[in-house]
Amino acid sequence: MDFQAQYQQKLTTADEAVKVVKSGDWVDFCWCVSTPVALDQALARRSEELTDVKVRGGILLHRPAIADVPNAAEHFSWNSAHMGGIERKLISEGFAYYMPIRYSELPSYYRSGNSKVDVVMIQVAPMDEHGWFNFGPSASHLKMACEAAKTVIVEVNRNMPVCMGGYDNYVHINHVDMIVEGENPAIDQMAGAGAPSEVDLAIANLVVPEIPDGACLQLGIGAVPSAIGRMIAESDLKDLGVHTEMYVDAFVEIAEAGKITGARKPFDRGRQVYAFAAGSQKLYDYLNNNPECCCVPVDYANDVARVSQIDNFISINGAVDIDLYGQVSSESSGTRHISGAGGQQDFVLGAYLSKGGKSFICCPATVKDKKSGELKSRIRPTLLEGSVVTATRTNLHWLVTEYGKFNAKGKSTWERAEGIISLAHPQFRDELIAQAEKMHIWRRSNKR
Prior knowledge:
The chain has 448 residues and is of the alpha/beta class. It is 27% helix and 21% strand. An eight-stranded parallel sheet has the order 1-10-8-6-2-3-4-5. An eight-stranded mixed sheet has the order 14-13-12-11-15-20-24-25. Strands 17-16-23 form a three-stranded mixed sheet, with no helix packed on it. The longest helix is centred in the last third of the chain and has 13 residues, at 426-438.
């Protein structure tokens, strides 16, 4: 088969390609750095011809053109499996909506037909000599979306890193209907966490000593996981492994420090496994054609049963608020949506079940109200009304703030209340004790 001849036959312009979209269609923009650019702009130019086009995606790193057309919500809606700052703003504009899911189940939604998809538009690396287009650092659920779609359109970007090592991380030209060559923009970068604060370092100093040689790491997004990653890179730890949902810059630092070998993993030995990646250009350069890094579908990376088979699995994630029962909210503050469930439930439970494993929920004890400047506790008697529970109290393992760490495993309600309150800012502890008494989860004999 002459793949180059086939390529030329399917090559078209973005404006021609988007003509396939009809009012009422479900259109997949796929995920994170694979979100199309030229096709998005072309679809926006068709806005006056279209109504109720439902676009699905997640973790936007640039504002889509379809959100900026006049009366955008009449023509398009954004339906996101995970949200960041751009999407939070789109929610307030009445344009975006969250899809409450366990991210690990997303591939199965396409296989089962639960996630209808008429058209897939996806940014990919250039075709190789065998006719394959690599999805870049986003295996995630993209192959399943392509298999479920009636029409597959790829937007080729020469700057997309080729991410190797896994499976279902390519689509073949035989399964592509149209090819668009955009202007090869730089791949979207995710802003780094910057220099760690004193609070970040205090939390990191409590977590890193709990990590043994040979541990397998999962890091979430944020300042605290980033600070922990940097501290690991500077530590004496050795033979670490990586099996994570998201690959972030901290892993590059740890790998370049010689800490990652993956030698003690029971499977995927020597390989850093991840479902998607976002970060700096340095990260993309590190992943490009690197056979040590293994980009896999999210139902492999986040599988609880698989994670639990890895001894000494260390899961490190953040939170918005925690209550005295040990319920963790990482998605919303009251009814104000912030991010999404992602894979936190999967990795919290996988690490909890791992032999020697530890799941850490890391959270600064306080936050300043942006309007009033008032200091507020992130540890609350109960979660704010409307707050979504991301990790349940039955799965809480280690909770860490700058004031200490507490292992909630096997603890009764009063033991949890005592341990969690000890991690709160001192100015809030008396009120938390008083509330715990009202909730009947405080033993008077333990009152200080």
